[in-house]
Amino acid sequence: MFISSSPEQTFAAGATCARAAKAGDVIALTGDLGAGKTQFVKGLVAGLGSNAEVTSPTFTLVHEYRGGRYPVYHFDFYRLDSADAVLRLGFDEYVYDDGVCLIEWADRFRDLIPQTATWIALAVKSETERLIEGLPQP
Fold first, then answer.
1. In the chain, count of helices (H) and strands (E)?
2. Is residue 113 part of a domain?
3. In angstroms, what CA-CA distances link 111 with 90, 106, 133?
4. What is the pLDDT of residues 64-104, one digit of tens each?
5. 3-class DSSP assignment, residue 111
6. Distance CA 127, CA 116 (A)
7. How high is the pLDDT of residue 136?
8. The domain that contains 76 carries what CATH number?
9. Model pTM?
């Protein structure tokens, strides 16, 4: 468990998580709106060595970031209404590719997430603090 006191610390937690990341990893992120999921993803993408501009894929549904140690596939299940909608995105192809998959709102479709996934929960503790649970050790 880690308590982040700022967006910069949440970013740093993602960057630290990147040290343990390897090809084929799936990282399932949970947490309410404003919990810091996208900030965490920004840090992880930067920690993998990519200079890509990370934004929430809420409307695009999946973003691909290249230029780092591994390609990153960033999903957001928030606006998806069924498992079929997720699968139509080619989700299986991404999950079993040689990149790192990051999935925001992964708990919406738990059955689609591989059992080998790392689950990271982010929660709003206060206006400035976020609780981050499930971080892998670098």
1. 4, 7
2. yes
3. 16, 10, 21
4. 999 999 999 999 898 888 999 899 888 999 998 899 999 99
5. helix
6. 33
7. 77
8. 3.40.50.300
9. 0.91
Do the domain assignments include residue 138?
no
- Count up the domains in the chain and report the number: 1
Residue 96 tokens, joined: 């079993």
How big is the CA angle at 113 (ends 108 and 118), to the nearest 5 degrees?
A: 105
In the numeric block, which tokens belong to residue 43?
Answer: 């840090």
User: What angle separates helix 37-47 from helix 7-20, to the nearest 10 degrees?
Assistant: 50
* 2-4 vs 100-104, strand pairing mode: unpaired
C-alpha span between 29 and 5 (Å, rounded): 19
15 is a domain residue: yes
End-to-end CA, the chain: 14
Cβ burial of 59 (10 Å; 0-12, 13-18, 19+) is exposed
Domain membership of residue 37 as a residue range: 2-133
